[in-house]
Amino acid sequence: MKVQPITDIRDIKRIKKNLKDSPRNLLLFVMGINSGLRVQDLLSLRVDDVRHASVGDRIEIIEKKTGKANVLIVNSEIHATLTRYLDWKRTFIPREYLFKSRKGWNYPLTTYAVTHYVQNWCDEINLIGNYGAHTLRKTWAYQQRKQFGVPWEVIAKRLNHSNPAVTRRYMGVQAEEVEEALLNAI
Known about the structure:
Blueprint: H1 9-18, H2 23-35, H3 39-43, H4 47-50, E1 58-62, E2 69-73, H5 76-89, H6 111-124, H7 134-148, H8 152-159, H9 164-170, H10 175-182
Antiparallel strand pairs: 1-2
């Protein structure tokens, strides 16, 4: 199933508001839409990896899908949400997963579980469409392009894409947008 990005910033704010009483899920959402990382890579993070992180810190990860080195940069939104989560959680088992499942003493959430979470979060705000775990990564790409005007080449580099068509899909480039550009007179 192909999933869509969350395109309206108001919908992002509504989901954050709905998750305010669930610090773990809010952190998962915030990290997903602010990092551009795959959910499976976020789920592999452990508390010790991020516990002392400050704004601007680089946290090295190895992508599960590609085996390539990548980095999570802690921005102000991630930092604030992470701090809130760690304050709420208070005690941790050494090397505990940041996004711990209820399955056992130390298993991370699954991508499958995150897909259900994202679908539920979108359903709660009556967002129509196909949404899942990959929505978080696609939302990052879309918002970087639309909100901040980041060039597609930079987004492609962050997402480790070698094919521009894949990056265009992630960024949510629609046929209507291309047609609109064709109306520009030079």
